[in-house]
Amino acid sequence: MTDRTLLLPFVKYMVSTAYRLPHYKLPNVELFILTIDYAGTFVFAISGALAGMKRKFDVFGVFILGLVTAIGGGTLRDLLIGSTPVGWMQNTVYLYIVVGAVAFAYLFRPHFRKLRRSMFLFDTIGIALYTILGLQKALAFGLSPVICALLGVVSATFGGVIRDVLSGEVPLIFRKEIYASACLVGGVVFLITDQLIGEQVAMGVAIIVVFVIRMLAVRNHWTLAFGAAAKS
């Protein structure tokens, strides 16, 4: 209880700092998306921190792994499209969130087995949302729809790729699980429906598509592995 009590002032400070920044005047929809963005950053940072702890990294290593997992995909996307300084360098709240997530992962590490389903749920929501957000940002730079869809996948998944490479694992998207392909399908759905039903509705539909595909794939053990096809 003492560790949790010490963590609360830090969390309150992060929240108050976030809402003192200029983005507090954004419209409700954009503010909601930004809030989900922060939540996704928090969850992805925890994922990286836990991977570092599993590998017995030191404190700095655990923080770096949490940081690259949380902001790696968006950073790579911004660099590829020439949007610099990249997003997290213009909004330091992302760094506060990563620090808080690493602290949270350390303090509550013994309980994360019980929270595995919840973490998977938030991760799935995160990749669904980041796919569309990344795609939209690429569209704003006038790139072709195909490139924008691929950049949406980069935004959603490449933080995890960097995490796995640094921790000595084969990246998840290069293994048998349906992960990046779900993001790609969601991006294509958004591009097709954007002009038909409106941007916000299309975004919601695409997010649901990514979420449902990922959930069903894990639940039913769907894969795209060539090895599985070769054995059958």
Describe this protein's structure:
The protein is mainly alpha-helical and 232 residues long. The protein has one domain. 78% of the residues lie in helices and 0% in strands. The protein contains 10 helices and no strands. Residues 17-26 have low confidence and may be disordered.
Supply the number of structural domains.
Answer: 1
How do the SSEs run, as a string of H and E?
HHHHHHHHHH
Multimeric organization: single chain
What percentage of residues falls in helices of 4 or more residues? over 70%
| Structural class by helix and strand composition | mainly alpha
Ends apart, CA distance between termini? 53 Å
Task: Tag the structure with descriptive keywords.
232 residues, mainly alpha
Overview in brief:
The protein contains 10 helices and no strands. The protein has 232 residues and is mostly helical.
